[in-house]
């Protein structure tokens, strides 16, 4: 028997599922303003506000983003954003205050601020996503936009000290997918320290594999989803991820991840 406490916020989060088919109706301005304002209220490391979001309304750019993602539905999203970690704005502010941004004393382009700005962008996107679901909308988070980061940077005219993090498509749902199974809490929540043995860590894996294998994704209703462990194994030797490495494009954007 579950001991989960329920209220509107909890139930919105528990019902979360990715929506990849939207009704074509545009979203009204008050919805857009609400979602963007909520995103701005997410936590921000040291109050640096080091993220930005680009709302995509140009049909040609949407089409190109769909090509980069390899997902045609991206082009049909009524509301589409790309969130970026953004130290460019803060660099401009610092320069106005007399900081030599090109010097070694400048630290907003280091690995710590890169990761913190990335965290801030994700937190803002998640706040927007949760607000959208609470308004009866559907969303899908688009990590697939990072399939070709250099092309994305060029397409969106991203300046130095910025880097794309995630996209999100939002609209009125035109499908009702099942909720994906979730991993047993015992495999993700630990007390005081990480489990001392892999046997203990993976104690719930067999039952989770079986549960995942019963799930049918609307993208391929003809076959059940592979067991979770099979998905992990396949991804653990996926050489295509090497082409998506962060270091080279991040360096071209002015970040110094080695420090």
UniProtKB/TrEMBL annotation:
Keyword Flavoprotein assigned: yes
Name recorded for this polypeptide: NADPH-flavin oxidoreductase
InterPro entries per the UniProt record, alphabetical: Flavin_OxRdtase_Frp, Nitroreductase, Nitroreductase-like
Record keyword Oxidoreductase present: yes
Species of provenance: Bifidobacterium ruminantium
Example GO molecular function: FMN reductase (NADPH) activity
Enzyme class: oxidoreductase
Enzyme Commission number: 1.5.1.38
Region (Disordered): 239-259
Highest taxon in the source lineage: Bacteria
């Amino acid at each position: 028997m579950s001991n989960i406490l329920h209220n509107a916020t909890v139930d919105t989060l528990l019902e979360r599922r990715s929506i990849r088919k939207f009704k074509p109706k545009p979203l009204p301005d008050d919805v857009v303003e609400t979602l963007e304002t909520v995103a701005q209220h997410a936590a921000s490391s040291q109050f640096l506000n080091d993220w930005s979001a680009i709302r995509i309304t140009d049909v040609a750019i949407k089409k190109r983003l769909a090509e980069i993602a390899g997902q045609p539905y991206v082009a049909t999203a009524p509301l589409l954003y790309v969130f970026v970690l953004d130290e460019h704005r803060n660099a401009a502010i610092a320069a106005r205050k007399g900081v030599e941004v090109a010097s070694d004393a400048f630290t907003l382009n280091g690995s710590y601020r890169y990761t913190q700005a990335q965290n801030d962008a994700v937190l803002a996107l998640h706040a927007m996503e949760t607000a959208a679901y609470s308004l009866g909308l559907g969303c899908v988070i688009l990590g697939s936009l990072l399939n070709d980061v250099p092309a994305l940077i060029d397409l969106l005219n991203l300046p130095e000290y910025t880097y794309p993090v995630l996209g999100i498509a939002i609209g009125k749902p035109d499908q009702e997918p099942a909720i994906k199974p979730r991993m047993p809490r015992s495999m993700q929540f630990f007390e005081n320290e990480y489990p001392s043995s892999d046997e203990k860590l993976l104690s719930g894996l067999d039952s989770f594999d079986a549960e995942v294998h019963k799930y049918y994704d609307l993208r391929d209703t003809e076959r059940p989803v592979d067991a979770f462990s099979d998905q992990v194994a396949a991804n653990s030797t996926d050489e295509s991820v090497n082409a998506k490495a962060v270091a080279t494009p991040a360096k071209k954007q002015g970040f110094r991840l080695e420090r």
